[in-house]
Amino acid sequence: MDKNALSAMLLFIIIFLVLSTPSKGSDPFYTDCSNGTSTSNDSLDSSFENNLNLLLENLTSITPLTGFYNTSIGENPDRVHGQALCRGDTNAITCQTCVKAAGQRLLEACKSRSAIIWYELCQVRYSIQSFFSMQVYTGKYVDRETQGKNISNPDHFNEVLMYLLRNISNEAAYDASKLMFATGEVKFSQEETIYGLVQCTRDIKEADCLSCLNQAFGDLHGCCYASEGGIILSRNCNVRYELYSFYDASGNLLTYPTSKGDKWQAWMIALAVTIPTLVLMVLIGSCVVYQRQKGGQEEDEKKSQLALLQELASPKAISMTQASELMSSEELPFLDLSIIRAATDNFADTNKLGQGGFGSVYKGVLPDGKEIGVKRLSRKSWQGLEEFKNEIILIAKLQHRNLVRLVGWGIEEEEKLLIYEFMPNKSLDFLIFDSERRTQVDWKTYFNIIGGIARGLLYLHEDSRFKIIHRDLKPSNVLLDHEMIAKISDFGMARIFGDNQNTDKTKRVAGTFGYMSPEYAMEGLFSIKSDVFSFGVIILEIISGKKNSGFYLTELAPNLLAYAWRLWNEGKELEFIDPLLMETSPIEEVVRCLHIGLLCIQEDPEDRPTMSFVLVLLGGEPIDLPEPKPPAFFASKMVSVNRPLTTDPSVDQIDSIILPR
Question: Where does the UniProt annotation place the signal sequence (predicted)?
């Protein structure tokens, strides 16, 4: 074989290897098949499958030209929509290789009508529903070794990291030349530099890109705080940071102003000159640093608040279902801060109803005499900001007799305010755990409250335009109006499901100990059956007058749920009922509710009833109830949550925990 033939063969092999294997990250970061992964028995409609194959071929061939492409193939009902995005620092060959590999992996792993896959250098998505130009945040964590390596000064690290990410996110969103992709680096010590990358799909608006990234920053804080690296993936935006350069910086590198390491270096130089010069430099430097940090923080806060204000106040503000339906938000009244201050007497302590995990709640009276409840979110809290936005967008769409009504909102600089209809009878926990008030309430009222909560959950799970999982149902989040009608409140932790979606998983478990279902507390899995579990706990607390969270580790049982089931199993269920109810209530109806509560707290989610079936059972239909299976006896030995003190149990208290993976 001559030299020319050998060279040609070697060149062919090299080209083949380059085109057939991704240069980075041969394994995907995350694959979401929506309806599950493929099995040997799964198959797609031949027409849809042909359209999908043609779509993926088009994405593979056209995306490398610009780094982003979306298109649709076929006719309904087998029309398929697809989108591919390559990382902004890839070249055409690398982009094509990655998109091709992603398409092949989707065909192998997913037998569903919608799916998305993320590689390090690209992402590919397809669906039977059009999703172009629609921003839907669905943050995913990526498990990596760097997330287990902690840095020594997390507070300072997070401050510098957020400074970097907010700067490059503004650049990605609003600098057209960046094509919604930006990288940057900033030193956070003399030896270490933080490298950051943000990117959005190019079909969404600038404000939607910034909104998506801001939500991702919240999840990044939850999964990767104090870690040396972290990645958040969503359908429309991605965020990543490392302590090493992981991107091709040519043409995209951003260098940010001096960090504290540089200032200390200047200090050392000054020290080497003279002591008097050192003193002068330290004084001047301290003033400059203080003013610069103060101004930078205020500017960042103003930018984030302005973006949120524009998103919520705009008539085109949108909220999305997981099924990718675009819906225009009805505008809620925006109340000026001066009006709210006047209504609450400048947030006077005498009007304060209590303290919650995200802020305080005050009673107020508007100029027209209407009483309101004002939820004042904690200042400079990114977690509070996300809850604020989530609650406005979500509750604006929900109208039901058994859901609390949001009547307005306000935002000005550091103030974030939610305005609710006033509930004169406070929350359910005041009623069932206060021995004095409990004597003033009859069983009929309790039974109506149970039915009201059930109807509110049924609306959320099945009857509203969304499928919504509350995730933090508890007595303090059930408010009571002047007629003692139950109204579910606090949707800051709620999640929206698509029409065909039944479960989801999170690595940042947030809720309240004693009301979280076992699969959610231990594995991060949640569904409508998670709310059913919480509902069952509330029923048992109403009947017994005891708190589940305050009952565990007694001589009677590990917790209230185990105690209830043990007595039921031994035929001693009447011992579980509060003696006050025994004296004045129809015992058969109370026992039936106890039975329903036990069915709701069964360990296996599949065994728990739906809320529609619960309402049938509460309606007194002559239906034989199945025997309840044991609840999960998980207690404080398995889950530990530190809960801050509250001044008023009627106010929501969110306890966030991160469980071991």
Answer: 1-25
